Amino acid sequence: MKKIVITGAAGFLGSHLAMDLIAQGHYVIGIDNLSTGRTGNLDSISKNSNFNFIEFDVTNKEILTNPSLVGIDEIYHLASPASPKFYQASPFDTIAVNTIGTDHMLQIAKSCDAKLLYASTSEAYGDPEIHPQPEAYRGNVNTWGPRACYDEAKRLGEVYCYEYNIRYNVQAKVVRIFNTYSAGLRNDDGRVISNFVTQALLGDDITVYGDGSQTRSFCYVDDNIRGLQLVMDKDKATGEIINIGNPKEYTILEVANMVKRLTGSQSNLTFHELPKDDPKVRRPVIEKANLLLGWEPKIDLEEGLNRTIQAYRENLITN
Ligand code: NAD
Ligand code: UDP
Fold this sequence. Notes:
This protein is an alpha/beta fold. The protein is 38% helix and 18% strand. The longest helix is centred in the N-terminal third of the chain and has 22 residues, at 91-112.
């Protein structure tokens, strides 16, 4: 049994990861300030004796002296708003959690000789001029715009990992996560899959931003969680940046039509202004994950959407 810390445990990815690690018999400490996460995401494990939830902000330096945070084997540092809607509403908190918060978690990793995985993002590539995006691509990020608080904070979070790895030998690993989805996303999360599925099920307009020709590549949560754990497990991934995402690319218009078809919805598609600096394309090169971890995604968008739609439908009925 390992002692594993997950920051952002009450969020979308953190809660799925916590449930999976508990099911494997590990002891998990979840830390979250509940800014975008919800304790309801943890209902199925909240009473499990192998789970300990600490409501706390990882940017607060008192985290460094928390008596529970000793003898830790692994830290998944996932805390950070992830939806443009939320990170743009709290830019300074977003910068802080990815810089000061990352520094704090790396200090704890150093003192425990624990491994640390940092959840970075495909946004590190900004509005990419190289397509698809390999890890070696250095990106095209605007420092002067609404996405900068997230993109640049994540890039600086990566720098913290680099420095702790080089200077102090901390076993730090960086994962650049590409758009990941499932029913665990809040209905009001604001990201595209939760918006479209919620809108389609309610018969509301499906809100396409721009003309819908921009592309994304969508990874189902189970594939992502398996990828994160492989990165943590494999020594070869220490000191590395690794893309984890599904390389099958769709236009947003294709996604809107697919959601409409799979839900059988009568919703109309409506077109709205494209947000500033919205990346035009995004698709991961996953050769490195394949080579170092033997990882590739297994669940395609149609299957993942069907599972997502079914779960959202059940939730809408029960709520
Ligand atoms: P989420 O918003 O559902 O979860 C983030 C969690 O972090 C929330 O529970 C929130 O309350 C918590 N948090 C935020 N600031 C905190 C702080 N200062 N102290 C403690 N807890 C704090 O987002 P998610 O989709 O689960 O994303 C998890 C991580 O993965 C984030 O770091 C995000 O940037 C990264 N990521 C996610 C995606 C994706 O598609 N889901 C893509 C790229 C990167
Ligand atoms: N998007 C959209 N309608 C929505 C929400 C998002 O057309 O209701 C678009 C958004 O402009 C972007 C893509 O879908 O091009 C993915 O947006 P999301 O916020 O999910 O994540 P991003 O990849 O932009 O961080």
